[in-house]
Amino acid sequence: MDNEHRGFTSNIGAILAAAGGAVGLGNIWRYPYMLGQNGGGAFLLVNLFFVLAIGIPLMMTEFVIGRRAQSNVVGAYRKLSPEHKGWTVLGYFGILAAVLIYAFYSVVAGWTLNYIVMACTNQLSGLSPAEVADTFANFTAGSFWPVLYQFLFLTLTALVISFGVQKGIEKISKILMPVLFILLLLMVVRSLTLPGAKEGLHFLFHPEFSKLSGAGVLGALGQSFFSLSLGMGAMITYGSYIRKEDSLFKTSLWISVCDLMVAILAGVVIFPAVFSFGMDPAGGPQLVYVVLPNVFNSMPMGALFAAVFFVLLGIASLTSTISLQEIIVAFTVEELHWSRRKSSLISMLVIFIIGVFCTLSFGPLKDATLFGRTIFDLFDLITASYLMPIGALAMTIFLGWFYPKVEVQDEITNGGALKGKLFEVYYFILRYVAPLALIVIIVSGIVG
Ligand code: PFF
Asked: What distance in angstroms lies between residue 224's CA and the mean position of ligand 1's atoms?
């Protein structure tokens, strides 16, 4: 199939679509609270290291697999390794990870819809910090509205997906990503001018290594996978849409820079505000929904900012849910030969059925726990700390040890058109550094 017609139409389109997949709740919602629970700047530094040393090479690895094979995650392994069918299992593993992530991710994405509605109808302004916290707790514990919003979010995502790669995914990313960035910068300026901002910045950038446990380090690696959407085939799928003439290294670098910047800026928005309102920086998953409304309440035209911010949080989530569903849809379209419409609809319904359990784990199912964790927490832990690192390890072994080096080099240098001076560095990381780091992390996660 002609790549021009199959995938993204430009490099900037590819970067924005993949950055859209990467930048999401993981950056604005998850990163800040992980950071808050794990020694602030110490977590940031470890995460930064993982992104540079392992994240970027792994993203290139996924792009190589996807673009070389011109195929979805299952088809990619089958095509690149026709005589060893076992590798195809990895593809299904990726689909499973996508399903589990999308199931819990859509819960929080649905919350953003509720907050958009509340902000637009002025229900958030004028509330005391305690009332803001109560509003969140009451809403998430319900069993109707959170489920409805989750369903709406899934529907919206499926709608974009059904328009296709160029007219749906690429088009929407090109519009929404720049807007997200501008709005985030506006929020940064507002947050930094709050009293107490300095303390928040100190917390964010001053590394407290004593607060960073082994689990925190595992969390930082899990976060870098989660945030860059690595280890389960999202980037294999998008990689298959990248034009043959684009540099996979530069594309990966830009995506990672965007992703990191948004995560750090989100921290700069949130922590000064947390300290300014005397809240607990280790507040957990509800940090964004409980803290930010207070920030908005304190600023001129706060209601407007609140509305815009939650719209943008919704948008950031949307470009990510699109990339999650596209993993599944690309598979059903290419392997099962379903139409894009049918694929979008059926995969959405399956996710909804599983996802409802995650939503209800904040309310009626909150006592349904395993190892002390709710269904939602379990899905989050299993995917970010285990499935994604194990998937990534398998990818490095596949590309670094089984797939011929010349082919890898050919794909990275675009058939020799690019110089590829750093190729040996990349290949060394691919074969040794990344797998070793991943093994250590996976084993330490299991043991400890
Ligand atoms: N990277 C997204 C985020 O940080 O919110 C989450 C994600 C999207 C993970 C897509 C995996 C994925 F395939």
From this structure: 10
Calculate mean pLDDT across residues 115-128: 91
Domain 11-447 is found in CATH 1.20.1740: yes
- In sequence order, the 6+-apart residues with CB closer than 8 A to the CB of 365 are 357, 374, 375
CA distance 61 to 42: 28
27 lines ligand 1 (CB under 6 A): yes
CA atoms within 13 A on the CB side of 13: 16
Measured CA to CA, the distance from residue 306 to residue 101 in angstroms comes to: 27
Higher pLDDT, 136 or 284: 136
At residue 2 the predicted structure's pLDDT band, cuts being 50, 70 and 90, is: very low
**Could you give the CA distance from residue 358 to residue 352 in angstroms, rounded to a whole number?**
10
The answer to whether residue 28 scores a pLDDT higher than 70 is yes
Q: Which residues of 27-44 are buried (b: 16+ CB within 10 A; e: fewer)?
A: bbbbbbbbbbbbbbbbbb
Q: How many C-beta neighbours within 10 Å does residue 426 have?
A: 22
Rounded to whole angstroms, how far apart are CA atoms 282 and 289?
14
Tell me how far the alpha carbon of residue 228 lies from the centroid of ligand 1, in angstroms.
Answer: 6
* Three-class secondary structure of residue 245 per DSSP: coil
Which of 28, 102, 229 is the pocket-test mutation for ligand 1 (most atoms within 8 Å of CB)?
229
Convert the pLDDT of each residue in 198-229 to its tens digit. Answer: 888 988 888 888 888 888 887 888 788 889 99
Is 408 touching ligand 1 by the criterion CB < 6 Å?
A: no
22 lines ligand 1 (CB under 6 A): yes
Mutate to test the pocket of ligand 1, among 232, 237, 262, 324 (most ligand atoms within 8 A of CB): 324
10 C-beta neighbours (distance < 10 Å), count: 12
- Distance (Å) from CA 323 to ligand 1 centroid: 8
- Among 83-92, 303-312, 337-346, the minimum mean pLDDT is found in 303-312
Q: Take atom 12 of ligand 1 and give the residue whose Cα is closest.
A: 229
